[in-house]
């Protein structure tokens, strides 16, 4: 055999052996499927939630897929059915509805698939193995105090609320009220639901400005609604006179802080609790046990302002 041909044959055999070995290694590390179900992957917060969960699962040797229900419980139920059919070892779920998602969780549990809730809660204990959520009451108080100080404790303001089916919306709004009620010269003249959505935030803000042209502040249940409000205020040449506060810590919100358009945002550590949920699932799958003190796991939020915005190093991560 010609020397060149011989070398090529040896190289091919080595490469083929490496591929077979790599395939065997991948198969030996395949610990099964983890199904990740989030709300809306077009939203950077939920996109990060799904991405971190998937990457963590793959790092631990699982296959993983990410799907989104967009707040629809029927879609969510179908996605849980698919996870059961595909013999998922665990489901990481950001529920569509605090009450309406209970049935889907129960269905998975009855099929022997453990569920780990992230970001939003369901209104029933004892079904999910764990519910990992931001400390929304703490975060709301943190944000409201910052916003009130920037407002100097006075002025007319508007509030944009998240979806009523999500417990986080009520918790944040109640947290705002608890703090802001201590400032008698702050007057809430408008409040509306914008369902966590930027376009709805824009439209609601336009209507609020028509009814209350002297609004001096906007406090929002999340960043997307706040960014929508900012767009409306810009269009009406009012942004320089209005203090806008957000909640989530999204990259777009951080950019708005750097641009001087958003006063602050409250960072939810979604990257942390998404990873933790998958590691909990792996612990349960690997050992049959889960060592946690309680089903509900709270993760404190952090404030991002112009003073510390440069410490924001990655989506939803703030260096300490």
From TrEMBL:
<feature type="domain" description="Periplasmic binding protein">
    <location>
        <begin position="34"/>
        <end position="286"/>
    </location>
</feature>
<comment type="similarity">
    <text>Belongs to the bacterial solute-binding protein 2 family.</text>
</comment>
<dbReference type="InterPro" id="IPR025997">
    <property type="entry name" value="SBP_2_dom"/>
</dbReference>
<keyword id="KW-0732">Signal</keyword>
<dbReference type="Pfam" id="PF13407">
    <property type="entry name" value="Peripla_BP_4"/>
</dbReference>
<feature type="signal peptide">
    <location>
        <begin position="1"/>
        <end position="26"/>
    </location>
</feature>
<protein>
    <submittedName>
        <fullName>D-ribose ABC transporter substrate-binding protein</fullName>
    </submittedName>
</protein>
<dbReference type="InterPro" id="IPR028082">
    <property type="entry name" value="Peripla_BP_I"/>
</dbReference>
């Amino acid at each position: 055999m010609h020397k060149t041909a011989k070398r090529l044959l040896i190289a091919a055999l080595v490469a083929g052996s490496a591929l077979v070995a790599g395939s065997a290694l991948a198969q030996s590390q395949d610990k099964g499927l983890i199904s990740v179900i989030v709300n809306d992957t077009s939203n950077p917060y939920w996109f990060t939630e799904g991405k971190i969960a998937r990457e963590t699962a793959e790092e631990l040797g699982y296959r993983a897929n990410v799907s989104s229900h967009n707040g629809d419980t029927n879609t969510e139920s179908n996605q849980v059915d698919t996870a059961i059919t595909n013999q998922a070892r665990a489901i990481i779920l950001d529920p569509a509805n605090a009450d309406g998602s209970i049935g889907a969780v129960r269905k998975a549990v009855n099929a022997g698939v453990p569920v780990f809730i992230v970001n939003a809660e369901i209104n029933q204990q004892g079904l999910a193995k764990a519910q990992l959520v931001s400390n929304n009451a703490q975060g709301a108080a943190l944000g409201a105090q910052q916003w009130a100080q920037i407002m100097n404790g006075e002025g007319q303001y508007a509030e944009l609320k998240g979806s009523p089916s999500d417990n986080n919306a009520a918790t944040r709004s109640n947290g705002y009220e608890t703090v802001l009620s201590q400032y008698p010269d702050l007057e809430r003249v408008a409040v509306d639901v914008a369902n966590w959505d930027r376009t709805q935030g824009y439209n609601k803000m336009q209507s609020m400005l028509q009814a209350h042209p002297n609004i001096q502040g906007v406090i929002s249940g999340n960043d997307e609604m706040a960014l929508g409000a900012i767009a409306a205020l810009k269009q009406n040449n009012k942004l320089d006179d209005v203090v806008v506060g957000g909640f989530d810590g999204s990259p777009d919100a951080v950019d708005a802080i750097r641009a001087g358009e958003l006063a602050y945002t409250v960072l939810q550590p979604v990257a942390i609790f998404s990873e933790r949920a998958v590691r909990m699932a792996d612990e349960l799958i690997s050992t049959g046990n889960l060592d946690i003190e309680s089903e509900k796991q709270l993760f404190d939020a952090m404030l991002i302002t112009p003073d510390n915005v440069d410490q924001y190093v990655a989506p939803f991560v703030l260096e300490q």
